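BACKBONE GEOMETRY TOKENS
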Amino acid sequence: MKALVVADEVEERLWTSAVHNHPADLVIGAGDLPYAYLEFLASALDVPCVFVPGNHDPDLSGYTRYGGLSMKDGFPAEWPGPAGGVNADGRIVDIGGLRFAGLGGSVRYNDGPNQWTQRQQARRARRLVRRARFRRWRDGRDVDVLLTHAPPRHCGDREDPPHRGFDCLHRTIELLRPKWLLHGHIHPHGEPVPDRVVGGTTVRNVVGHRIMELL
């Protein structure tokens, strides 16, 4: 399973036919990218797309599908996300032979969408763990990838309020034991960004793009 993993920074050369120089089986988005960009990448490569929203992305909460229609508050409404993309935020989803657990958004620093206090994200993380446990009880499969926008606290984050990581992700890693935690949000600005290992999980900053073998 080869994945094109993207976050935060649009790479113009990928938003052209040159994307075919990066063949992949799956597009993974870790937030703060135009949804049209994710849609283009998945369409051009003819592969599925799974993503979580970042703190600069539109609010996707409250949308459902019924009879092939996108609905919100019981009325037809155009979904602002990428066509065909799977929003993993707060969910356990199986895509391309991989099981993803998703937690989008960043630490709350203003009134924008997809921002959470430490306590709010901790509640969301506990719900996610319960869903993962139920799925594991049902089919015996574990989570392969924990897909987030912000990193765990003190694991490649920053000290300015908007770029602090989430404390709860350490406990989430401990309980889910994924092989990977993939995140964006922290721009390296040309500095090397080493992987970090938490328990048996490799934590990787995927700002820009990465080509990764995930299986």
